[in-house]
Amino acid sequence: MDLDALKAARQKGLQKLLPDRPRVAVGLATCGIAAGGDRVYAALEAAIRDRGLDMELAKVGCIGYCREEPLVNIQIPGKPCVILHRVTEADAEEIVRAVAAGDVPRRLALCRVETWDPLVGEKLDFGTGFDDIPAYADIPYFAPQRKIVLRDAGFINPEDIDEYFAVGGYRALYKALTEMTPEAVIDEVIASGLRGRGGAGFPTGTKWNFTKVEKSLRKYIICNADEGDPGAYMNRNEMESDPHMILEGMLIGAYAIGAREGIIYVRAEYPLAIARLTRAMEEARAHGLLGKNIFGTDFSFELTLAEGAGAFVCGEETALIASIEGKTGRPRPRPPFPAQKGLWGMPTNINNVETWTNIPVIISRGGDWFAGIGAEKNTGTKVYSLVGEVQRVGLVEVPLGTPIRTLVYDVGNGGIDGRDIKAVQTGGPSGGCIPASLFDTPMDYEHLTAVGSIMGSGGVVVMDETTSMVDTARFFIGFTHEESCGKCAPCREGLKHMLMILDKILSGKATRENLDLLEELSGTIKKTSLCGLGQTAPNPVLTTLKYFRNEYDATLKGAK
Amino acid sequence: MTQVIIDGKPCAAEEGETLLVVARREGIDIPAFCFEESLASYGACRMCLVEVVKGARPGITTSCTLQAADGLEVLTETPEITGLRKALIELYLAQAPRAESIKALARRYGVEKTRFARKVVKEDPLQNRCILCGLCVRVCGEIMGAGAINYIGRGQFTEINTPFYEENEACMGCGACAEVCPTGAIALEDRTDTRVMKSWSETKVPLARCAACGTFFAPVPFTRYAHEKLDPGILDALKDLCPACRSKAAARKAILLKKEGVIPPEPELQA
Ligand SMILES: Cc1cc2nc3c(=O)[nH]c(=O)nc-3n(C[C@H](O)[C@H](O)[C@H](O)COP(=O)(O)O)c2cc1C
Ligand code: SF4
């Protein structure tokens, strides 16, 4: 492939993405399918076929408004793209009839999108009209959001590389390979301030450099797509809705680091993500974007996919590497870090899915542009999965540093049936519970840590007044205890005793000494565990003890 | 050569040397259960915590994974570290209530009892003494190359035994596992012509019989393994002898040779 071929591919893609006849696209990520999107797709297909209508039917990923699914995009040439929500099979006839007449069913319309900015390419102009339908930017769920990672999600067909070309896909790679040195690429990533989205928030450019400077004939890069947090599915959606963005990010990273081989480690419970990534890899290879001499340069890169065995701890980088090597997924002490001794003993750079997806736009728009989004030392956006006792659940992408309040009330619209919200738990099973009184806390790495929680991979679980915080803490300790690999004593033994004490508390038989021991043990586990699992697992207990101690006290023997 | 400071004392060390090894050489007794110099650091028992006061990553860390570097300064027994060790000892007392070495360490640290529920398993093959430090598994696999035992299960349910709790032919009966076990958890017994690895699903290993005196002296597969590894090898005539008869035979041979004047007074006995 060369620049002309890339331009031609974009034109071809645009004809698919913005055809000169109506296009009906159904949101078919796992969430959309679970909501019945595949049945809607089949019904639309039948309705179009039966009437012999001249329209395109396409599959797209998920725009993130999971509560409103199934979602269907209607694009009529010259008109805005209209997103229909809560569509059922029964609506299919009505939809195609309206579309054939150049219209959309108003009762199903959620919002309209006149133009869309894919950031790395030219804007997509859908058209104007339908002014009675609310604009995308006026929908409270979308208004506070800033789509960078999910900019294509829900608009392009993730199973068609042409549509990725249409939104400027692989142009950042072309730029990196033909106009930039590997050092310049790393400098750009450092300038962007991007930090790892896998949990710890380590600066990505700096990390790349660790592997780059190692002297070794072989180096690897890995995409960590193990996403094991219960309730978290941002990585799944990123893979299902826009797999090529991950590939492009990895290609750019490999070029910068000097790696010729990469592995995407996906949990086996994500069959659709695996299928779409596999397809994306095949398409990329067919276009010469994987393999030898990419874009006619000296750079060659091979990518393979490995399926994870399903253990939460296998998301930890050293356990993940052991797992790829066919060993039991147990973390090992660092140093040596993977950058020095990683996969098969070779220097290895490992990043989270979302970290990789941020790379193309950084190369395309520049590190400074990226650094202008978000907050001090916390640049860019973060995708959160907003779940629990909140009205509007879904995947939300906002700049880092956005207050918890915005997420819970503006995006999420508060509690269900008017119930008060009591707390949110961020960061997955080992995050802390943050009380409503602290909802002005900006969601960034440092502030979340300061209130006793973590960013983690971006899970946000909302709890309302009906939730018992002791129960909640018990639930999460139950999870981490189940998932402890058992290698080191504080996590293996300590979590077991925490669970026993919590059960005693919940059965109303605990004494104040038990409570004190629980708190002391939490501190020991945090300070002495080998890996991040143990080091963070007590957070739900420590924060609920800190912010909701009265709930514990009320259960103590003799309290009633 | 470089210099590190441990508890205020300047200590010579090789660049990159494991700090725990340096400390022990200097007579500073940092407790550790899962460490063995001939194996890669494992970092599982968490007992060898030290505080880095000057160095690349200040804070509390395990000294078995800390590498000596110029200017590194650590403390091995701050109030915080002592507190954490005591807490870990309590966990170990609950996990392995019959382990004497843990009790001894508890006494050294003034831990009188554990506040956690003690786990006592009836007929535990590891005698309620195993703390899952993994030394036996690693020695068996990485040093002896036998891989007869491994972890079974995960998390709180982790155990160490032979696969499927069945007798395992891979076991050479060498007893290296029992030798490295820090809590004396592994039981084996020689019953006339057989060594029984009681902790490892009663795996039975035949003992070799001395061709001269008839005593059973070492597990057959282990003698074979040892003969292969010896460099230079051992005289065929000595292979089937127990250590006592072997030295007798060697001495006799030396005397004979001396008598016949074949060799000078200081005999070379190696093959
Ligand atoms: C118990 C545990 C589970 C983890 N699970 C994941 C995961 O599912 N996905 C992920 O990207 N990182 C996970 N991590 C973090 C990784 O170890 C690693 O830091 C990350 O992949 C680095 O990528 P980043 O720099 O892009 O954040 C986990 C860490 C721990 C301790
Ligand atoms: S902290 Fe837990 S999960 Fe991590 S190594 Fe220790 S036992 Fe395994």
Strand order of the largest sheet of chain A: 2-1-3-4-5
Bound molecules: flavin mononucleotide, iron/sulfur cluster
Strand content of chain A: 15-25%
Total strand count of chain B, please? 11
Q: Report on the biggest sheet of chain B.
A: 5 strands, mixed
Give me the secondary-structure category of chain B: alpha+beta
Q: Helix proportion of residues of chain B, in percent? A: 25-40%
Class inferred from helices and paired strands of chain A: alpha/beta
Please write the string of helix (H) and strand (E) elements of chain B: EEHEEEHHHEEHEEEEHHH
Identify the CATH architecture of the domain at 2-77 in chain B. Roll
- Strands of chain A, total number: 18
Instruction: Describe the main β-sheet of chain A briefly.
Output: 5 strands, mixed
Kindly describe this structure:
The complex is a heterodimer of chains A (560) and B (271). The longest helix of chain A is centred in the last third of the chain and has 18 residues, at 489-506. By secondary structure, chain A is an alpha/beta fold. Chain A has a 5-stranded mixed β-sheet, covered by helices on one side. The radius of gyration of chain A is 24 Å and the shape is globular. Chain A has 4 domains: 19-138, Glutaredoxin, CATH 3.40.30.10; 170-369, Rossmann fold (3-Layer(aba) Sandwich), CATH 3.40.50.11540; 378-464, Roll (Ubiquitin-like (UB roll)); 469-553, de novo design (two linked rop proteins) (Up-down Bundle), CATH 1.20.1440.230. Chain A is 41% helix and 15% strand. The model of chain A has no long low-confidence stretch (mean pLDDT 96). Chain B is an alpha+beta fold and 271 residues long. Helices cover 29% and strands 17% of the residues of chain B. Chain B contains 8 helices and 11 strands. In chain B, strands 2-1-5-3-4 form a 5-stranded mixed β-sheet, with helices on one face. At the A-B interface, helix 18, helix 19 and helix 20 of A face helix 2 of B. The complex binds flavin mononucleotide and iron/sulfur cluster (SF4). Flavin mononucleotide binds at residues 196-200, 202, 207, 224, 226-228, 312-313, 315-317, 350-352, 355, 457, 531-533 of chain A. Iron/sulfur cluster is lined by residues 313, 331, 484-488, 491-492, 529-531, 533-534 of chain A.
